[in-house]
Design a protein that fits this description.
Blueprint lengths: L26 E2 L11 H10 L12 H11 L6 E4 L1 H13 L6 E4 L5 H9 L3 E4 L19 E4 L11 H10 L5 E4 L20 E6 L12 E4 L2 H14 L6 H12 L1 H24 L3 E2 L6 E5 L5 H10 L2 E2 L1 E2 L8 E5 L3 H14 L1
Parallel strand pairs: 1-11, 3-4, 5-6, 6-7
Antiparallel strand pairs: 2-8, 7-8, 9-10, 10-13, 12-13
Helix pairs in contact: 1-7, 2-7, 3-4, 3-6, 8-10
């Protein structure tokens, strides 16, 4: 820490991403990336766009916003595209949350929420999940403060039905209810249709998981037009050219080949459920994940030891050294072949 860092950041603890090895020596099941490549049309459009890299991209991402809006069943003015969903989250924290009113979210959820609270000087009102890691919806109904929920939740993979999201939004009309749907395409139902009914509801999503574009950094926010205008003001005050030309081309092409990604998501969900059953047969406790990962614990082995032994055998998974979940592993769903190797390896370890 230098002597010039502002004092308000002295205790800031940054988010720590999952390990990203550069040598390709691992089966990588630790960062919830898709095991499948982008569609052929995405690769073609990105190659074609490379010839125009001397030019700035469209700061308003008009073509991508129009295609995304059509896909979501809303209007272009209801959508903003961002540099990953993390940027959409950051803009929301800057635009809508202040120092006077705490933001409520669970104790076990996406690790960036408390980081953004610290960065933006916002108080976090953290509510424990139930013992089984489910969200108690009543903890978020009529609380008189902003609410942030990942749905499906990370790292548990558990899902709240849209009826519960509506209860929360309807009961907190004067505060933003932000729903992070990063994993919605693997078995959940999106709450995006509710944005036409509730002007306080903000949905955040990403192309990183279900559209195989983690490296392109494409996220989005969906909400009523005034909320999107507010977020766009923050974006234009921070980085008007927030998506590259190649990222915009990739995002547009991905929406043009949605059938390819729908098929991949169904296959990932199938492999997820089959792997979950195999792990339960081996004595693991496995949550009912609706995401592209599994959250698992063995009653007789520590999470850290399993993580270390898997890593030594060339398989990366995510271990969180955090209260309540230090014996759990989050395992990204890879291809059927990769998951067979994972199960065989875990069987040999235990």
């Amino acid at each position: 820490m230098s002597r010039f860092l502002l004092r308000r950041y002295e205790n800031l603890v940054p988010y720590v991403p999952g390990e990203q090895p550069q040598d390709g020596a691992f089966i990588k099941l630790n960062t919830n990336e898709s095991p499948y490549p982008p569609s052929p049309l995405v690769l073609e459009r990105v190659r074609d766009e490379a010839a125009s890299l001397r030019l700035y991209p469209d700061p308003d991402a008009r073509r991508l916003r129009a295609k995304l809006a059509a896909h979501l069943g809303v209007l272009p003015e209801n959508v903003l595209v961002t540099n990953g969903s993390d940027e959409a989250l950051a803009f929301a924290f800057l635009a809508f949350f202040d120092r006077d009113t705490p933001v409520r979210f669970p104790d076990i959820t996406y690790g960036f929420y408390p980081v953004y609270c610290s960065l933006c000087g916002v108080r976090a009102d953290i509510v424990p999940l139930r013992e089984d890691f489910t969200v108690c919806v009543d903890d978020y109904v009529a609380v008189g403060r902003p609410v942030v929920l990942a749905n499906p939740n990370a790292p548990t993979g558990l899902f709240l039905p849209v009826s519960d999201i509506e209860r929360i939004a309807a009961s907190n009309p004067d505060h933003i209810v932000l729903i992070d749907e990063a994993y919605i395409d693997f078995g959940g139902e999106s709450a995006v249709p509710l944005i036409n009914k509730y002007d306080n509801l903000l949905i955040v999503g990403t192309f990183s998981k279900s559209r195989s574009l983690a490296g392109a950094r494409i996220g989005y926010a969906a909400a009523c037009a005034p909320l999107i205008q507010d977020l766009d003001t923050i974006r234009n005050s921070f980085n008007p050219y927030n998506l590259s030309r190649t990222a915009l081309a990739a995002g547009e092409a991905a929406l043009d080949e949605q059938a390819y990604y729908t098929k991949n998501c169904r296959e990932i969900a199938r492999v997820r459920d089959e792997t979950a059953e195999k792990l339960r047969d081996l004595g693991f406790i496995v949550t009912d994940s609706r995401a592209n990962f599994l959250f698992i614990r063995h009653p007789e082995r520590s999470g850290h030891d399993l993580y270390a032994e898997l890593r030594a055998r060339g398989i990366l998974v995510r271990w969180f050294n955090l209260p309540r979940i230090s014996d759990y592993l989050r395992v990204t769903v890879g291809t059927a072949e990769q998951m067979d190797i994972f199960v065989d390896t875990i069987r040999a370890i235990i």
